[in-house]
Amino acid sequence: MSNSFDFEQFKANAIEQLKAGVPLSGKEGVLAPLLENLLNSALEGEMDSHLEGSEREWGNRRNGHMSKQVQTSMGEVTINTPRDRDGTFDPQVVRKREKILADSLADRIIGLYAIGNSTREISDILEEQFGNRISAETISSITDRVLPEIQSWKPRPLDRVYPIVWLDAVHYKVMDEKNHPVTQAIYNVLALTCEGRKELLGMYISRSEGANFWFGVLTDLQNRGVQDILIACMDGLKGFPDAIASVFPETTVQLCIVHQVRNSIKYVASKNQKEFMRDLKLVYQAVNKDAAEKALDDLEIKWGEDYPIVIKSWRDNWDRLTAYFQYSQHIRRIIYTTNTVEGYHRQLRKVTKNKGVFTSDTALEKLVYLAFTRIRKKWPQPVQNWGQTAQQLAILFPDRFRILA
């Protein structure tokens, strides 16, 4: 292979191309030939250095070249990697199996993927902007770079105490081992730290829930350092109350009032819904639990014969629906609904809405995690009025929660 490069000829050609409006970067860009030569020259230098000393003494020699196409921010270039007989040469300038050279280009691909673009859409965008068409397989392998980060994020240590935690699930279609689409849920555990900042403690993929599943989730949190959760807010997750009672027995469980109201109104005739809702508001907007119980009794007297199942649902879940009455109005507004975690899920769906079916759990987890890393950039500041909330929690839980100095 000839390593000669006529710089004067390159310069003359480059000037003519620039005059003709040829861009600097892209498939036919002006600078691509120069970059290609520099990279190949650097690889030759690496091989010369590798074969010095003991390698040559042991009889190792050059053994031709291996060509491949590499995508760069300057355009696509042809790399001719030298080979040695013993196969001990490990190039650093352009590493083995590396098809994307510029980290900035790889970061751009990951960024485009993180906002919900498909591999085909990313390929189209890059071809339009840089003149490069990158295969879907290459794009997928680049986005796989995030997998080690996910694996290190999952078991990371957590704080000792979290004052408020929300739990909820978001559902997706995923291909199973038989290549059939099935519904998978990502159960997210979103918390407020003692400084009042949002933190996603974990995300867990599962087709079903129950006491065993939630016991595993809570045990994972415990193993990662969590010793106490003051208040856990959720939407009737099956098996969760029993599981948290065994792992964090002092935690107060608050069922989402908004979900309970929605579920109730579904079973009320449309002609009665407006009046029923006016009476139901007297229950969950009462000043205290005693007043709420009186309002529920009145609701049953008026509507119990028409809607006994609705009233029974409130009675069966009463203690967990009314846990928020023991707190101030300020804390009530934070915990009586799961809107916080639902807001997070709405942001996830903006990214995943164009995904019909994910090819695997890994593909689902990868995109959701990348979306999460973008969303959490909006979480650096404490939630509104956290100072006042923290003082009230410190008074209510003097042995379990302390304001950080």
From TrEMBL:
Residues making up the signal peptide according to the UniProt record: none
InterPro entries, per database record: Transposase_mutator
Pfam families: Transposase_mut
Any single biological process term in GO: DNA transposition
Keywords of this entry: DNA recombination, DNA-binding, Transposable element, Transposition
GO molecular function: DNA binding; transposase activity
The protein's role, per its UniProt record: Required for the transposition of the insertion element.
Family, per entry: Belongs to the transposase mutator family.
Protein name: Mutator family transposase
Organism per entry: Alistipes communis
